C-alpha cells in the first residue's frame, strides 16, 4: 500500500494523466474520476488530464468522458478509481501507459498497479479522493471538485443510509456543503426516474421471488425489457427496490444482456454476499456486489446459494 504523499509525488511527475473508472459507472465511479481530474487540472494547469470510458446516459448530468486515443497512452500516468479488478476497467488499454495507480474502496482481491491506495473502511472512492486532496498542499477542494465528490459519496452511501457511512463521511459531506454545493439538486437528480422506470419499479414486486428466509430474486430478461420498452441501463434503476420490503433481507436481480448472459446485482441488509459474487465471476462489498451468470440455470443456482447464506446468518442471530 502506498501513501497519499507517494501518489501525489507521482502525479506531479507526469505531464499527461489519464483517469479511468469501472464499466457501467455509478455516481461514485464518475464522481471520484471527475473530482480527481478537476482538482489536478486546477492545481497543475499545464498538465493534460483526460477522463476515459463510456458514458452512462442517465448520469450525463454528473460527468461525461473524453475521447482517449492510443497515442494518448504513450508516456502517460494512468489512474483507475473505484474499480476492484482489471476486467471491469472501462478501457482495456489501461496498462498501455507508463505508470499505473489504483485508488479504490472495494476489497483488494486484485492488487493491480505500480502504486495503489485501497481503503475498505471508506464509504466511497470519492471520500478517498477528498482525503487525498486534504493531505496535499497543492490540491484543493474547490466548489467544483466538491460537487463531484459529494455526488459520489451520496450515491455509494444511499444518501448516507448505508452502514458504510461514518462520522468522517459526514464530515467530508459537510465540507462540500460549506463550499456551496447544491445538495438538493444532486439528490433530486438521483431520485429522478422516467415513467418507464417507475412502471418497472412497480412491476418488480410482481416478479420478485421471496423465500421464507428473507432471500429474494427477480429476473429482468430481454423479453421483459422489450415489453416495457426499457434498456439495460434503465433496468439497473430498480436494483435497490426489493430492499424496501419488510420481508426481504438479501436479494439478487438478474438483468439479461444482449449476449444472453445475466448481470447479477446482489444486495443485503445483513448477510455477507460478496463471497457468493466471487464464486460467479464477480465481487464487491460485503453488502453490495456484482457477478455474472451465464444462463438462467446459474441464476437459480446462485439463488440457492443465497438462501443458504441468509439461513445461516439468521441462525447465528447476527
TrEMBL record:
Domain (DDH) ranges: 16-153
Superkingdom of origin organism: Bacteria
InterPro entries, per database record: DDH_dom, DHH_sf, DHHA1_dom, Oligoribo/pAp-PDE_c-di-AMP_PDE
Gene Ontology molecular function: nucleic acid binding
Domain annotation DHHA1: ranges: 222-312
Name of protein: Phosphoesterase, DHH family protein
